[in-house]
Amino acid sequence: MFGTALIVFREVLEAALIIGIVSAATRDIPGRSRYIWAGIGLGVLGSIVVAGMAEAISGFAQGMGQEIFNASVLGVAVVMLAWHNIWMSAHGRQLAADAKAMGGAVSSGSKAMSALAIVIGLAVLREGAETVLFLSGIALSGESSPASMAIGGITGLAGGAALGFLVFAGLLRIPLKWFFSATSVLVLLLAAGMAAQSARFLIQADVLPSLATPLWDMSSIVANESAAGAVLKGLVGYDAAPAGMQVAFFIIVFAAILAGMAWVGRSNKTT
Amino acid sequence: MKRLALALLTTLSLAAFAADEPEFKLVIENHKFTPDRVEVPAGKKVKLVIENKDATPEEFESKQLNREKVIPGKSTGTVFIGPLKAGEYKFVGEFNEKTANGVIVAK
Questions:
Q1: Within a domain: residue B10?
Q2: Which residue among B66, B82, B94 sits closest to A239, beta carbon to beta carbon?
Q3: Which of A6, A53, B54, B74 is most buried (most C-beta within 10 Å)?
Q4: Residue A246 lies in domain
Q5: Which residues of A touch B77 (CB under 8 A)?
């Protein structure tokens, strides 16, 4: 039971971090909770579907379907996060400055929210499908009773939800003055980190070369298997001994989104 | 000229397909890896071929290698790792961590 809880917690950790950050970053967008819940709901449904199709997906692309699937899911999430951040750098300041008098922003706000609902849905999908496979494996093996499995699963899920809420509540305590910048930076890092993780899947599948691997090794400072390593992986795609390609993906996506934000922010000021 | 280009292309694509990374086979049976200690060359890309003989899915996972892959029941999966620095890298079957574990030794 405890083992089940721990594994479920580890699987939902990344999704919980993402949901916490997105919820905080969008606190001024009206009706955002509907989108967040829709994202979570669709992600859970998608997890069950993907878990059911696991064999078909694995067999795809000469047995590399799983990697291609994960890399694509991450790639779509990167695009959505990038779009959100660039959109926010044009509209976010007004949103934060005047949350009430912005009837006109509601429609465009809902566009940004749909992008983020997709990000949430994909995050839940990615981790959720593995959780469903794991739980169905236990159920099939009959090694633990359904009750203890359910309790373990719910405990792990509750732990993940609590962590997500802590991230959310912690971010809301940031003074308004810095709030916009802080959440933009977090979303930017999240996107770059996802790009790095997507590169990692493509290297694992031998679709991309790894380039100068490992570029460095920080295992003795923050190991991948440590709690800090797990959280950093969720936040910035941390890998203690990354392949050169992972780092390249991180830097390119980081720079591209930053350039987009600067460009939109500037053209917005002049008009 | 055309023929030369064609010959060059064929050679290149052949080279790409006949990738010569060393291959290592692992079998999962009764939620255990055999062998549970795999020696691989350091500084080289390596191909792991993992056959799951159990009926239940397993997730090959190594935090140290930053690799994870679900291997459905009764199927085989491939994971590329490295190039690795010399050292030991633990791996587990995440769905049955107590029994399914092993180590990759890069030399």
A1: no
A2: B66
A3: B54
A4: 2-270
A5: 58, 63, 66
Picking from B91, B79, B25, B98, the residue whose alpha carbon sits closest to that of residue A141 is B98
Instruction: Write the pLDDT tens digit of every residue in B37-93.
Output: 999 999 999 999 999 999 989 999 999 999 999 999 999 999 999 899 999 999 999
B83–A134 CB contact, under 8 Å: no
Question: pLDDT tens digits for A100-149?
Answer: 445 555 556 777 788 899 999 999 999 899 899 888 888 877 777 888 88
> Which residue segment(s) compose the domain that B60 sits in?
21-106
Spatial separation of the C-alpha atoms in residues A72 and A58, rounded to whole Å: 14
Record the pTM. Answer: 0.88
Instruction: Report the CATH number at residue B72.
Output: 2.60.40.420
| Residues B95, A3: C-beta atoms closer than 8 Å | no
How many domains is chain B built from? Answer: 1
**What is the DSSP secondary structure assignment for residue B96, as one 8-state letter?**
G
Query: At CA B59, angle to CA A245 and CA A202, rounded to 5?
Result: 20
